[in-house]
Design brief:
3-stranded antiparallel β-sheet; single chain; 3 strands
């Protein structure tokens, strides 16, 4: 059964998530590695990401590594927040816009509101 939340409560939750997004700071896709503790390792700090299905790696200074690590963490948090905002948006849309006539109710999984 589709659990229905009130539109005002969904909107409040959405607004709270939007405020959290606005306070994230710098963002960057990819991952960072500290390889300074490895014996005979080439680069000390690295940033890796995918570009056109290819892995691109960039050597970083310690300061760049520190800032990039925070930017990557912010990016991951942004993705989690956006996923929640999407679900809330769909819930609001499906509760406020008329449905087409159906023989069977659509599940939360189909609607993407789980």
């Amino acid at each position: 059964m589709l659990k229905i939340h009130s539109i005002p409560s969904l909107q409040r939750e959405y607004d709270q998530l939007a405020r959290r997004v606005s306070h994230l700071g710098l963002i960057s896709q990819g991952s960072v590695q500290d390889r300074t503790q490895r014996p005979r390792s080439g680069a000390g700090y690295q940033w890796t990401r995918k570009v056109a299905a290819k892995t691109v790696t960039v050597a970083l200074t310690q300061e760049q590594f520190s800032k990039m690590r925070q930017a990557v963490a912010n990016y991951r948090q942004l993705r989690r927040l956006l996923k929640k905002m999407e679900k809330i948006s769909r819930s609001i849309i499906f509760q406020t816009a008329p449905h087409t006539a159906r023989h069977k109710r659509l599940s939360r999984q189909v609607l993407g509101t789980m």
